[in-house]
Amino acid sequence: MSGKDSGFKGADVSTQQQKTVVEPQLMTKFEFASPEWIAALRERLEYYTAKEGPGLELSLCEVFTGVPKHLDKHGNGIIAWHCIIKNGKVHFEETAIPEADVRTEVDYTFVLPLARKVYSPDAMHEVEEMTAKGVASGKMKPTGRDRSKVPPSFVGMHNDLAERTL
Fold first, then answer.
1. pLDDT tens-place string over residues 83-97
2. For the chain, which domains are there?
């Protein structure tokens, strides 16, 4: 993917995929990128990976820069996570990796509205526009080897978290 590609073009957000999983534990809301949000992300990664089955192989990494001081546990203004999914298992760490199938480095304040947005067919044009603005301004740096490896069902994971993100 080139540095100018938002990575969202052609995203498949069909009606079936946009439905979020309604479970009692999904009622709790928390601050974006907080320890509680990271824990929920990890749980959702495991849930959606299990739904995909053992054939899924994927690596993901997000790096949030300019994070609020009260969330900055390392004192460097960065919160990062990555996961490597292989043989139906999720290996998750709160660190960045230099390369992944999908890797995004993004300013915390810039990405917050996207983190809260439920992806639906009607919303994707706005998501693509916001992402393109982030790339153009340097606030979002999507890189990666193969975004197409992300299963369409993972939109549900984003939406589950979006509905819970303050």
1. 999 999 999 999 999
2. 15-162 (3.30.1050.10)
